[in-house]
User: Fold DUF3598 domain-containing protein from Glycine max.
Amino acid sequence: MASSSSSSSIQCSVWVPSLLNTNTNTNTIHFLSLKPNSITFSSSFSSSLTRIRIRASSSSPTVEEAAMSIDNLRRFINLNSGKWNGSFYQFDSSGNMLQQLSTKLSASSYGEDELMSLIQTLYIKQPSSSTSISGDDNDAEWAEYKIKETNMFTVDKYQQIGFFPSEKAFALRYQTAGMLETVLRQGVLGEDDTGEESPRNLKLPSRRPSVVCENCLYSLERDMRARAFHILEPRGTVDMLIVFLEERSDGAPPLLESSRDVKSRIIPFLGKWKGHSITKRSGVYGSTITNADTVVLHEMDNNGQLIQAQYQTIWLHLMEVIR
Assistant:
């Protein structure tokens, strides 16, 4: 008998005040080295992100509040709608910047209530072709990419969005890294892309990643956001990190800032963060939900390296079994 199954997961953190005391798993990760020439958020945006996390910790939303109801979907669509100017950054697993590109995102909606849908089109600025005559930046071409629609069906079946309206934050997962590969190919190679599977001087995400997850935080002071992607290889190791820094405006796109004062900017994020994660896995014989109380500990060692320790208490719920 032949059978097939699919597995998908996303971790959405809901900050709760309780401490863990039983059935605890511990995992310590050396996350990245903070070098003098590291790329960090500009100070104004970094402080806004800090306030977002403090608000999330104190408001303690419930799992039900994070679920995607019709009202939450409407708020999610309103939060994302508009025209966004952005900068795209690609980093390797050690935090070294590989690429910086310019992007634009146009988002709008149609339909009402349970038929509402968010439609998004991403535009990637292409480099001048090797056969191009004009080198004028005003003549630059923009490649177009249609992002999968978001509606009541896709948020549960495909994207599994965890949305936290009060904190203006959300997390979702992708089935492939196709969108990110398109951005890299169009933004770095442009019309010179021959379709080669592994172009020289360009690191593309794995064709069969185990996890592609997006986490987004909005500034509480400006109409600005950071969308961070982490991509894991099939073996489960970090493949690359990608950041879209975007502002809803017609002006110049926001930029990440290079600074030597990296350590002081990471200090607000050090310490113990308590939360709750929900992971949904689906397959041909049914699906399960795994819940876990979590504690994440961020510390800085004497070498300026950020160390992340994770603790979690896990319990499993069987949602549905099809025989």
Notes: The chain has a mean pLDDT of 75.
